[in-house]
Write a structure and sequence with these properties.
The protein has about 220 residues and is an alpha+beta fold. The chain has two domains: about 25-95, Fe-S cluster assembly (FSCA) (GMP Synthetase, Chain A, domain 3, 2-Layer Sandwich); about 120-215, Rieske [2Fe-2S] iron-sulphur domain (Rieske Iron-sulfur Protein). The protein has helices spanning about 10-15, 25-40, 70-85, and strands at about 45-50, 55-60, 90-95, 120-125, 135-140, 140-150, 150-155, 170-175, 175-180, 185, 205-210, 210-215. The strands form three sheets. A six-stranded antiparallel sheet has the order 4-12-11-7-6-5, with no helix packed on it. A three-stranded mixed sheet has the order 1-2-3, covered by helices on one side.
Length: about 220
């Protein structure tokens, strides 16, 4: 039987008649296929990199790779879809993409927050965020750190993922902020920790209308 199902035609026939159940990789792909139209509408995609139960690894492609809201997209979209379809998967890991950022496809709102109409609060204007720098502020009771490069704005909790100390006094160079307390370095475009890749800054979705900046607080 094992040799028989190794034949693509035999396998397809047995699957068609329900004699064989879909494999775990197939079910993961089905879960990812369900969110791909939403990612594609924003110029992005996701691919399955590795299946090693109870863990899988995925990678963002296109505009989703390096997008400021990629972590919101990952948790609200990819991780949720996989865990609901494949309960035996208990950990979904995001691995690095190509590292290329599509400067012509900036999305200020994760596709999974685009339809949301609540929890958006005013965070000032573009001009109040230093170009290539950061601005710390308290919005809706949350301590936030906003950064800007041109019209691209990102927003994170103002807390180092190491021990939770504030970051606003850290040195910023080429889009990287260094925690002034213990030297942990973070990419202000994605929140990725360059010192300890297993941790990252907590992100919040951002939208910009004209020069008005708003953040969506979901804590």
């Amino acid at each position: 039987m094992k040799r028989a199902i190794g034949d693509e035609i035999v396998y397809a026939v047995l699957r068609r008649h329900g004699i064989l159940k879909a494999s775990l990789p197939e079910r993961v792909e089905v879960a990812l296929a369900g969110i791909r139209p939403m990612l594609a509408s924003h110029g992005g995609d996701v691919e399955l990199v590795k299946v090693a139960p109870p863990v899988i690894e995925v990678r963002f492609l296109g505009a989703c790779d390096g997008c400021p809201a990629s972590q919101l997209t990952f948790h609200a979209g990819v991780k949720k879809a996989v865990e609901e379809s494949c309960p035996e998967i208990t950990e979904v890991r995001q691995v690095k993409g190509s590292g290329a950022v599509n400067e012509n496809a900036v999305h200020f709102v994760s596709p999974f927050a685009a339809a949301a109409t609540d929890n958006w609060v005013d965070a000032g204007t573009l001009e109040e965020i230093p170009e290539g720098g950061v601005r710390s502020m308290v919005v809706g009771g949350e301590k936030l750190l906003l950064s800007r490069r041109g019209t691209m704005v990102t927003c994170f909790q103002n807390a180092c993922a190491h021990l939770g100390f504030p970051l606003q006094d850290g040195e910023v160079e080429d889009g990287i902020i260094t925690c002034p307390h213990h030297g942990f370095r973070y990419d202000l475009g994605s929140g990725e920790c360059l010192t300890a890749p297993e941790v990252q800054l907590q992100s919040h979705a951002v939208r910009v209308t004209g020069s008005k900046v708003e953040v969506r607080l979901v804590v």
